[in-house]
Amino acid sequence: MNDSLFFRRMSKRSYQDKPIEPDVLNKLYEIIRWSPSCANKQPWRFIFISDPEQHAKAVSALAKGNEWAAQAPVIVVVCAREEDDYSREDNDIKYYQFDCGLATMSLLLGATELGLMAHPMAGWSAPDMQKALSIPDEYDVICVASLGYAGSIDLLDERTRTKDESERTRKEITEIINIDRFVK
Questions:
Q1: Would the pTM of this model clear 0.90, i.e. be above it?
Q2: 5-176 sits in which CATH class?
Q3: CA–CA separation, 63 vs 36, rounded Å?
């Protein structure tokens, strides 16, 4: 079971200096295209950034501590607008945000399946990213991820290397799964 796609997916921080082949990217685009969404609205817009000038602009919108992402050959920005959301009269749930999460998971698992590594990040400025990539104001930047071929840990600075060398952990199943009713 541990060789499953779900267990092989990792968010490491070192990338090879190697571009992603167009046919590999096209396969990944198709995987993302078939992501599930509420009422099949598909509200997401993915921006794949590899042009050196645009890549530098996207990297400049990342927070300190994410400098390692500059080595990834592609930065991926996921955005959506509430206007494209599915809505119901009986609740005010923002389905488009959840749908973007589903499509982002397709990015992560699809990348793993294709021999790539994708790392979604916390730590970026949405206004700076919008300005850098000409994203209209009505779109929310939902996620930013790095994408490329996994590189050697030796390429990382000591602080970042320490993060990547730490053991992968998860909460115990009893902490996250409840049966029949909510239990703290």
A1: yes
A2: alpha beta
A3: 30
